[in-house]
Amino acid sequence: MTKYFYAHSLAKVCYYKFGSGPSTVLCFHGLGMHGKQFHCLADELGSEFTFYGFDLFFHKDTELADNSLENIKYGLQPDLLATFIKDFCDDHAIEKFSVMAYSMGTFYGAALLDRIPQYIERAFFIAPSFLKVKPILSFLSNNRLGNLLFEKLALSENGLHNLVQFIKTIRVLDSESAAVLWKEVATPQLRFNMYANLTYLRHLKIDVDALSKKSNALNVPLYFIFGKDDKTVSPNLSAKVIKNFASAKVAIVDQGHDLVNKSLTREMLFCEA
């Protein structure tokens, strides 16, 4: 696995490349993770796919060109994300690609499927949180007063720690996901990154009905993987997938929310388990 940087007007993006297969996969990790998250697939799938795993915005070594609070509040527009990916593909001689996205990363993947479906060969959505945004997260990122409150909490010493505990108490997150969030607000910089991440991505909210019509028209193969014991992204959402996406396959595996690990196999990804 090799680490690279891609300089673009939007950001200096860190990414990792692994595998040597003929098909390209662009990978979008979960909250608090990094571009290496999907490297666990290299041994089984590295001869079939070449993977590009990005450090997403406000994670690890990726840096926005404009990191001002004003730009963060303006947010990432879906068309700008699509332009960035198209530019990346042009510069790397990639004509078509598959999307592989986990949890928070599924907002990126779904936005690309919505904006540039003609580029996408197939899409894997693992713990697809884009299907239903938690009301409290929508309030903190999209509501003006909620986002102002979120900003104040992020800049305070204990505000986000108390918020994480509250979210866990009302069962918006399971203990596993809350533990990840707790680590993500341990320092002032991490607290700012948490605020910036949710605020910057607020425009990537997906109209699932409209998205399904686009993907159905192009017959893009879609694979949705849920954890049976996932308290963050309910496997009950699989019914919504089956209802809306004609070309989708669904798998519910005997795990929780942490699905991208060494037990993730090709059979699970292609919903054949």
What can you see in these coordinates?
This protein has 12 helices and 9 strands. Helix 7 (159-169) runs antiparallel to helix 8 (175-184). It has helices spanning 42-45, 69-74, 78-91, 105-115, 135-142, 144-155, 159-169, 175-184, 188-200, 208-218, 238-244, 266-269; strands at residues 2-7, 11-18, 23-28, 49-54, 63-64, 97-102, 120-126, 222-227, 248-253. It has 273 residues and is of the alpha/beta class. Strands 1, 2, 3, 4, 5, 6, 7, 8 and 9 form a 9-stranded mixed sheet that branches. The two termini are 28 Å apart. The chain is globular. It folds into 2 domains: 2-133 and 205-269, Rossmann fold (3-Layer(aba) Sandwich); 135-199, no CATH class.
Topology of helices and strands:
Elements: E1 2-7, E2 11-18, E3 23-28, H1 42-45, E4 49-54, E5 63-64, H2 69-74, H3 78-91, E6 97-102, H4 105-115, E7 120-126, H5 135-142, H6 144-155, H7 159-169, H8 175-184, H9 188-200, H10 208-218, E8 222-227, H11 238-244, E9 248-253, H12 266-269
Parallel strand pairs: 3-4, 3-6, 6-7, 7-8, 8-9
Antiparallel strand pairs: 1-2, 2-4, 2-5
Helix pairs in contact: 3-4, 5-6, 5-9, 6-9, 7-8
